[in-house]
Every structure is written in C-alpha cells, then in structure tokens.
Design brief:
The protein is mostly beta strands and 62 residues long. It has a five-stranded antiparallel β-sheet. The longest helix is centred in the C-terminal third of the chain and has 7 residues. It contains one helix and five strands; from the N terminus they run ββββαβ. Helix content is 11%, strand content 42%. It is globular and about 25 Å long. The chain starts with 9 loop residues before the first strand and ends with a strand. It has one domain: SH3 type barrels (Roll). The structure holds zinc ion (ZN).
C-alpha cells in the first residue's frame, strides 16, 4: 500500500523477519528505504516498490 512514509515511522510488512517481528522502523526514505527490524535491530535496504507491495500498516511516529 502507498502510505505517507517518513523517517521514524513504523511499517508493518506482510513478510515476517526470521526473528519473528514484522515491524520495521524507517531510517531512510527514497527510491530505496533503509529499515531496521523492531525485533532484532537488523538493518536492510529495500526498494520503495517492495515496501509498498508488502506494507500492511504504517504507524506514524509520535
Ligand atoms: Zn528481526
């Protein structure tokens, strides 16, 4: 889904990380996003299109 993605928001993806968490903190936005797993802290780079395809929920930063 297309959300208003901003740094600091938490995005919930369809696919679970092996650690069991499906929530990621957004560290960088652009053509590629940098995400940090809320479960284990692992960081990944992922294409914006892949995020939009897999996103189920966006929690805006407080
Ligand atoms: Zn993880």
């Amino acid at each position: 889904m297309k959300f208003d993605y901003e740094v600091g928001d938490i995005v919930r993806l369809k696919k679970q990380h092996p650690c069991g968490s499906s929530e990621w903190e957004i560290l960088r936005v652009g053509a590629d996003f940098r995400l940090k797993c809320m479960g284990c802290g692992h960081q990944i780079m992922i294409a914006r299109k892949a995020v939009e395809k897999s996103a189920r929920e966006l929690k805006k930063k407080a």
